[in-house]
Amino acid sequence: MNLFQTIGLVVFILALSIFNSEDKKVEVGNVVPDFNLTDLNGKVVKLSDFKGKIVVLEWTNPNCPFVQRVYREKIMTAVQKEFTQKGVVWLVINSTNPKHRDYREPVELKKIYDEWGAVYTAYLMDPDGKVGKMFDAKTTPHMFVIGKDGKLLYSGAIDDDPRGEKKEKVNYVRNVLNEILSGKQVSISVTKPYGCSVKYAEN
């Protein structure tokens, strides 16, 4: 191997390691890396602020019909209210690209979610989509549950009714939270999320 081949190999290995580190996604069972985002009031909120607590992450976009439905039918707000009263931290995250037509300013978002009766610990803005991509959040809504030990315990849909047609729904997030609070293993840790695609900024 000559000098140029050696240099080329080193550059390739470095590029591959950088790509892998940037492309790494949070997976169920792994500890979630700390992150920080700004809330609707401009305050920086860190995941580590809630160390030792159960944390729910809810990806959202108020222009999405699926999001509108789960709020209109109280599917989301009922679970928010039930478990925030039990000490669960609920973080709503909006990863909509500021240049997309669905983007709304924090003042308008606060008004919309107040009118919907949302009950959250903080509503966080992720305009560059960095945190959303770290979790590989695909849809609005897309739900994640982090355990007290900081590990991701659930990723998926709010329930088993994508079309909103079932009279009897299985609310996956409610079940996961009840299992965690009861000291049980999470029985269903991954489901397929449904909803509108997250409107990420293009790289």
Give the helix proportion (percent range). 25-40%
- Beta-strand content: 15-25%
Strand order of the largest sheet: 2-1-5-4-3-7-8
Label the overall shape.
globular
Largest sheet: 7 strands, mixed
- Secondary-structure element sequence? HEEEHHEHEHEEEHE
Explained architecture:
The strands form two sheets. The protein has a seven-stranded mixed sheet, with helices on one face. It has a two-stranded antiparallel ribbon with strand order 6-9. Helix 4 links the parallel strand 4 and strand 5. The N terminus is likely disordered. The chain has six helices and nine strands. The longest helix is centred in the N-terminal third of the chain and has 21 residues. It is α+β, with helices and mostly antiparallel strands and 203 residues long.
Topology diagram in text:
Layout: H1 3-23, E1 36-39, E2 44-46, E3 55-59, H2 65-72, H3 75-84, E4 89-94, H4 106-115, E5 122-125, H5 130-135, E6 139-140, E7 142-146, E8 152-156, H6 172-181, E9 196-197
Parallel strand pairs: 3-4, 4-5
Antiparallel strand pairs: 1-2, 1-5, 3-7, 6-9, 7-8
